[in-house]
Amino acid sequence: MSVFKKRLGQYVTLGEDEWLPFDELDHQEQVFLAGDDLVQAGDEIRHVFIVKEGWAIRYRLLEDGRRQIVNFMLPGDVFDLQSLADLKADHSLTAITECKVLVIASNVFVDMLQSSASLASAFWWSAVQEESILREQIVRIGRRSARERIGHLLLELHRRFVGATGMDVERLTVPLTRADIADALGLTPVHVSRTMSAMRRADLITEGRGGEITIVDRDKLARLSHFDTDYLHLKKLHIASDRRAQQIGESHRGLAD
Amino acid sequence: MSVFKKRLGQYVTLGEDEWLPFDELDHQEQVFLAGDDLVQAGDEIRHVFIVKEGWAIRYRLLEDGRRQIVNFMLPGDVFDLQSLADLKADHSLTAITECKVLVIASNVFVDMLQSSASLASAFWWSAVQEESILREQIVRIGRRSARERIGHLLLELHRRFVGATGMDVERLTVPLTRADIADALGLTPVHVSRTMSAMRRADLITEGRGGEITIVDRDKLARLSHFDTDYLHLKKLHIASDRRAQQIGESHRGLAD
DNA sequence: CGCCCCGTTGAGGAGAGTCAATGGCTGTGG
DNA sequence: CCACAGCCATTGACTCTCCTCAACGGGGCG
Fold this sequence. Notes:
The structure is a homodimer.
Chain A: H1 2-9, H2 16-23, E1 28-32, E2 37-39, E3 47-53, E4 56-61, E5 67-73, E6 78-79, E7 92-95, E8 99-105, H3 106-115, H4 117-143, H5 146-165, E9 171-173, H6 178-185, H7 189-201, E10 205-207, E11 212-215, H8 218-225, H9 239-250, E12 251-252
Helix pairs in contact in A: 1-5, 3-4, 3-9, 4-9, 5-8, 6-7
The structure holds a DNA duplex.
């Protein structure tokens, strides 16, 4: 479960003992191959998922087959709030690389939140961050040019990946096709291809084999795409909110079966 | 607080006594004039807000002054999860009509969640719905034409407004300028004007004075804009999840000061 | 070897943006 | 009571980003 710990570690530092209820969580480990569905629109989800390895996408298919990727699930990401409310999924989740995923029954997960203030607080932050990433995605698609969108997305993925794995790599291996990037950013694959070619020519990125992307000059790309990490809320809580987190956790008592 | 009750009533039916902890909540009532900020980007929020009357927008301003409206806050809407984690707001909230808003200290609010399974469950649903609305906004902007976007947004606002106020009006008074609609949908005011004119000519909507919009044929507009209410999750929970909601509530114990 | 998926590139088209002028409505002040 | 300012919607003309259709080529894999 250490990716999750690493990711949360960007926000709070917990002692070994504080992680105990989490480590002892009754869980399953499932492997999904690239292309497998973790969740299909319409499913009733009763589990919380934590990505251990691999990338997955959350997306909606439209009536005519078009696809909109809503966001990306990276190692360390937890989902889904939805499962705690016994609602049907309104979108699908698919692995885009081989994924190792921890699957935890919603009620077991909620029991854990109840038992630990610091874990509840950490989970709460994770949910807040996820929602914030959604809002940023709206801004990105609604008001930015193709080049800004792509640069901004690459920087977000890089930042999130580094944050979760601790590997501060210059070179990010992005397992995304042009079609994936297009469907995430409201563009067409053709235009993504053209724009990324231009970005290569402008020495903003370089690409190796197998989706290996290197961001040549991070500051320059960040400036051009107006990328600012504020929305990722990468900083510690006040102490007070740990107490509040546990309260929130406990207020969820009734959500378990 | 009855708007909130009405809105939640679409989802769960609670008895008078179940609402008690909510009714007794220590709160302030604040009035904001059109144009007033409820929250500014950068603020540290320590309150939960519930809109009683009026409309507000949540938006981000870009470096160059462009604006992206992330979503609309209508009567009955509650925000903000963020406040429970003591994080800085990464966006602003502004009243676009005169708004009456209930302001509740985060820790007081969390105490209430802890004390009642059914209220925690109701609040949880509200948070899930809000996130779902964000995802739908991404799909709308990313993959739909101008006419679809506008039709879809109008139908969502209509449905949400009716759900919260109980007034099943044909005529929805939308206090939005073309610039507001444009900033929400990733368009320009000029193009919104043109598109809405075309929609009037096509007998999809009619407009009266002061932003009064009537959706002439709801089914037809829904078909054309591919609007489906599924993502609003307007249906009852299973009984089990009430218990789980309370658990989640309690797990938040530590979040209160 | 041949297929399929993917990225690339070209040509042409369309939807949405920009710039700018006009006119209505509202509110304010002389 | 009228004049004027300010805001907003509308419309026209022109531009540009991004889309569509299509062809080609490379790499992985059976």
